[in-house]
Amino acid sequence: MSTSEGSFSLISPKPGVLVFSVAGDVDIDNSDLAEEWAERVRLNDGELTVVDLSESTFMSSDFLNILLGLRQDHEDRGRVLVLVASRHAAARSPLETTGLSRFFTIAPDLASALSLGRHRHGSGEELKGAGPPPSAAL
To answer: What SUPFAM superfamilies does the record point to (predicted)?
Structure first.
């Protein structure tokens, strides 16, 4: 049972940019809700999506799979996906422990993510991890 109920929000700080914020615990109790929010992200046509995990306190394997799905969707559609998770954020641990951090571009804060996405995307460089995501689910 989660001690900090998860919450989700979407904002578009400027045209072509979507910020999907995740706060609290994302676990079995709210993974369906997290998937519904992720579907809203998939339906967006923006060039850059930032998933802000800086207020996340726990991420289940279900949510890690949702993130992998978003990564694949963005790659398939030529869009940029950047995660926000500082070195000390609770969200960073499951990404590093599972080895998934190498498949994502991770910024330490929202301003850096927005800047990184704009710089990398504008320069023609692809924002990809070290390779394709693992084919097997977590």
So the answer is: SpoIIaa-like (SSF52091)
Site of tokens 């926000």: 84
In angstroms, the CA 55 to CA 85 distance is 9
> For the chain, first and last CA: distance in Å?
20
Q: What tokens appear for 29 in the block?
A: 């109790």
Write the pLDDT tens digit of every residue in 61-80: 999 999 999 999 999 999 99
The angle that helices 31-43 and 61-76 make with each other, rounded to 10 degrees, is 10
Question: Is the Cβ–Cβ distance between 46 and 14 less than 8 Å?
Answer: no
Q: In order of start, what are the domains of the chain with their CATH numbers?
A: 7-123 (3.30.750.24)
